[in-house]
User: Fold Rho GTPase-activating protein 19 from Sinocyclocheilus anshuiensis.
Amino acid sequence: RFTEHMYLCIYRGTVCNVVISQESETGGSGDGRPPIIFNPDFFVEKLRHERPEAFTELVLSNITQLIHLPGAEFSQLLDEEPKTPNATAAGGFFRSFNFLKRKDKGVVFGMPLTEEGIAQIYQLIVFLSKNLHVEGLFRVPGNSLRQQTLREQLNSGADIAFSSGDFHPNDVATLLKSFLGELPEPLLTQRHLHAHLKITSLSLFDDHGSKTSLPDKERQIEALQLLLMLLPTANRSLLKLLLDLLYHTAKQQHKNRMSAHNLALMFAPHVIWPNNMNATDLQENLKKLNSGMAFLIKHSQKIFRAPVYLREHARLQFADTSMIHSKDDLELLSVSGSPFMSACKRSAARVRSDSDSHTEEALRELYRHVTHHMPNSAKKKKLIRQLGKQSTPGTPVNENTTPTSKKHMRSRSFGGLIKVRSLSLLQMITHK
Assistant:
């Protein structure tokens, strides 16, 4: 059973993605039993691997709520494959980093990113994490001969004997940047470039609804949380390890003189700059790319978590909704002490306070959007059938409406599709 302290830690952001508790139900911790491991994003990852299409649609629809992506830019995200060929239901980033223990032989530098390659590069990250006090770390270049020796050892799959003192932290730091720079594409991928530029530009609105020059950090974090879920597994794993290292490096800037901004200048070219961007476009977007990298470093302890509403939605996907008739039934499905409990209670209380007319209006809005704004396709027909099953008296789902034949590019308004459907379903589930 999780203690109240553990519950609060999860929501106040003092832990990362996995919470470990040694406490048992009787309160003891010295009985020899293994620790309890809780992953707040368990159901999100379960949805990713068991229902990848539903997962991708859910993430994309929420991203388009936050940033406007025209057709071509949206298609780039839509074509992204969130799984890797060897991913399993228990796989992905949140399965822990057990793969870092194996170091299969194979060339690492200049090759596509693999788990075996990350396992080798992880040795550099571990060594650097013990030398964060070195002044000018990542800025002062290392010795080229020692770097070449280290590169050859990594490519051979060797365990590096850093304890021998043969390599200086500056050698290792420079080689880490070289590894990232030699990847066939940036760690954040070419496809995500436009989305990252849009996220960097998110700003607050004033009381009159006009944009200000102040960045909207909360929306930026939320958008990054969603976008990073679409990265290939290997990219996401290495990005998490790298940003953790840079975050802790910046925390010791009083010793190493490397702030998040300074580190961003060192790593943006290797992590986010696209390979095929011409000099003019790069110059126009240089400030955004560098500031985006600095933002990733500063908020690295938050951006790899799933938004709370996504956790709740994913959990409900695996609940036996046919057996839920009231809020009490919904609560019985939650594990005692689960951090999802308070979110579910708030959601249930909120939706029960709405009237039946709200449900009908939401369904009408969704139906109008599907019939008038989606191109004719099997997905459109499927949605109309689903809406027909969910219809209530007075909802025009069963009207004999001829769908428009004009095709529209997917727009920001379609981003609300899943949220509206989820709200309507949750209302019907929890309404007595």
About this structure: Residues 351 and 427 are 5 Å apart (CA to CA).
